[in-house]
Amino acid sequence: MTTAIAIEDVRREVKILRALSGHNNLVHFYDAHEDHDNVYIVMELCEGGELLDSILSRGGKYTEDDARVVMIQILNVVSFFHLQGVVHRDLKPENFLFTSKDENSQLKAIDFGLSDFVKPGLYSIFFYLSSMLYLFDWFVNMFFLFPFVDERLNDIVGSAYYVTPEVLHRSYSTEADVWSIGVIAYILLCGSRPFWARTESGIFRAVSKADPSFDDAPWPSLSSEARDFVKRLLNKDPRKRSTAAQALSHPWIKNYNDVKVPVDILIFKLMKAYLRSSSLRKAALRALSKTLTVDELFYLKEQFALLEPNKNGTISLENIKVALMKNATDAMESRIPEFLASLNALQYRRMDFDEFCAAALSVHQLEALDRWEQHARCAYELFEKDGNRAIVIDELASELGLSPSVPIHSVLHDWIRHTDGKLSFLGFVKLLHGVSSRTFAKVQ
Question: Distance between CA 77 and CA 361 in Å, rounded?
């Protein structure tokens, strides 16, 4: 360890291990010492060997029940350090150890040498600067339409077989870890890797362009829930990929041994976007939330319960503060004020479960489902009955908070039906997603 970068990497790993504490599936950190030549890290001794060794000893694959046990532990610990703002960046079977030689012993996540903190609210910084300097006026408007967005990392790190497409594109966050978990799940269930080539560059091409096969044995003999579970983790679009907490709510997992779903950081990001949305978009999201199935509502019910609603069945900013403090380690405590500031609108009002469903659902994740078209059409029918009204483009632009410099007729001309001036189905779907800066780039 002679370079300044190598020394800094070890110090960052120690900082992360110090900050993260208290989870049963995270290797216990005791202390670290540094002399002139070395850094000494004292951690829990895990004598059971790597998860990789267990996979190999089983001839390459687990039963569904055994794979579920492993997945529950991995998802639990990953959702924990994602909530704390840490991305691991090198999740693979070699980095999970059994505490003892009994394979029923606990799994522990190890090796945070490539891990990093993800700073929240990068767009908040741009918003502040742009408002102070009167620059990027379109960005200021978009800030109110989009979720609280984490800092994007850009280093290509990790192991080739487990690396996610967005890492190769040098723009990623915690979702990259979930992809790696999907690769592990695929291997556990079928005994082979979802992406393979003889060279690292070939693996990277396969990860970027190929789709994992679910047609070859043993996939046809496995449950449809198991296949769906893995597919949701291996979605190439990180916006459509399940979070670790959502994966614990999946039907393949949730009915197994009373699995507890942890607080998901995603709900706070989505709630921020909802609270800053126009009244028209809120109405559209409420219509969409009414189309959710029992399985899709399960995750939202669990998240709402974790916020410990008041006796009247509503939550406020105080509920969110208590939930965050209850789950915070040293890594997260500094982030809490910014989270609360981003949800400040709840300081003056309360939110019931029906509105929470609209605020905390992910349109992108619903869009990844086979039944998305049905969801959208049913939601539009509800919106037609309850919320759709004649609206002119200028009024729509004003309600969306678009800047005067935006060519609104180019952006919004296909949002409104020419026959009656009401929002079209295409406009409804775009409204659900919000207006992106990419839209402006195409028309300006």
Answer: 23
Q: Which of 35, 90, 237, 414 is catalytic?
A: 90
For CATH 1.10.510.10, the residue range(s) in the chain are: 4-118+153-254
Distance CA 296, CA 299 (A): 6
The DSSP line for 147-193 is ---PPPB----S-GGG--HHHHTT-B-THHHHHHHHHHHHHHHHSS-
- Beta-carbon contacts of 104 under 8 Å, excluding residues fewer than 6 positions away, are none
pLDDT at position 191 is 92
Q: What pLDDT is stored for residue 2 in this prediction?
A: 62
C-alpha 49/C-alpha 405 separation (Å) is 61
Beta bridge partners of 41: 32
**Which residues make Cβ contacts (< 8 Å) with residue 373, sequence separation at least 6?**
none
> What distance in Å separates the CA atoms of residue 297 and residue 250, rounded to the nearest whole number?
11
- Is 4-118+153-254 in CATH node 1.10.510.10? yes
Contact 261/254 with Cβ under 8 angstroms? yes
Please give the helix or strand (H or E) that residue 299 lies within, else none.
helix 294-306
Place of tokens 């540094």: 34
Is beta strand 351-352 parallel, antiparallel or unpaired with respect to 116-117? Answer: unpaired
> Is 295 among the catalytic positions?
no
- Closest listed residue to residue 236, CA positions, set 172, 160, 151, 154: 172
List Cα–Cα distances, 147 to 350, 363, 433, 434, in angstroms. 20, 12, 11, 10
User: Which parts of the chain sit beneath pLDDT 50?
Assistant: 122-148, 437-444
* Ranges of CATH 1.10.238.10 domains, the chain: 265-443
Its CATH class, for the domain covering 265-443, is mainly alpha
